[in-house]
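Issue 218. Parser rejects a valid record. Input:
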Amino acid sequence: MNGATQRKPRSHKLNSDRVRRGWVTRKKNQALKAAQREVIRRRKKKPLNRAAKQHAQLSKVNKPSSWTSERAKKAWVTRKANQALRLAAAQRQTQLFMPQDEDGEGCSSVASVTDEPSVIESPAAPDRAKLRVSLVVTFPVREILVKVAARKEAELKELQAHMQASKEDAHDEPDDGELEAQEDAHDEPDDGDPVIEEPSCEVRNNLAEDLAAATDHDNLSDVVNIGKDMVESIHFHRVTQVGLAYKVELFVQLAERYSHDRVWKDELDLSWIASDKLLAYWNRFAGGRDGALDAAHPGACFRTKKILAVLGHRKTRFGSLELKVVYQGGNLGKVAWVEKRFLRLGLDLDERTFTDYCKAVRSPIPSDDFYVIAEETTVDIRRCPAWVMQTE
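Output the parser choked on:
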């Protein structure tokens, strides 16, 4: 030191120079950004000149101007053709839905279509024309609904008249010639087929005695064909309704031992005594039993689906009681498990069938309680039920 003046450190000078250069650089950058924003603002306000537009188009699409004009021309032609097609389709629809007057001409107040499209020139492109079509179609909704309601009412009246005619002819006996013709042709008759009187008490007793005298069999297929010799032929069928119950009846001719009686019998009875003949009869129709019933009565195959026999039951924890069943009029090999809560006694399941099963199983049927468990139980049916072919 010795009286000499102190010198400032060199680092202080370097820091001040660095701050000064940074400040100058920041100001330059701010000025450049402001100039760029001004250029962008002016470019948005002021459109590009013709040279700039051509340069921008050539830079984006390296295609000659002739290619662009040809493409626009093709698009214009296609658009005009599509407009003409839409106009023709709209005119056809209008003529289809247009109501006819007494003179045979369409009503102009319902649907109106301009015969000739008006051509309007665009001021931006005077060498081109734009096709403008004025199409206003108002469908006669009220008239259509009135016609539909009238048609439905006519169909209902026709159905009621047909049912009334069927009831009036219910006690008439068919002619022998008509019956023979139906046997030869194997054709299904109309719903209004006459009802034949039931067989006499003597014939019923003979049938019941023959069924009761039959011996036990080892399998179900032999049991359900125990009376196949009693039925000589099956001619046709019908669907009847008693209250809420639907049932299928078949017109059969009994064997010579029973005086060749021609009777209407329930499908359930025939499924028990002549299952093979009944199945052969249904197989003559397209679609089998369901196809034959639906052809004359839509949905009848579901309303007349009934259980022939109950073969077993089972119950799992938290599950419902299930019955092992076979259906009447079908193949015995098709066994199904059905929940009992969905079966209606007297409609889907005959009470006599369920009573016979309860007697055969010799144990109480489990309830639908969640915690009840019952192992799978099956029974062997060796005899035809006593109530088959009895007086209804």
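Fixed in the parser; the record now loads. Confidence is low (pLDDT under 50) at residues 104-139, 173-199.
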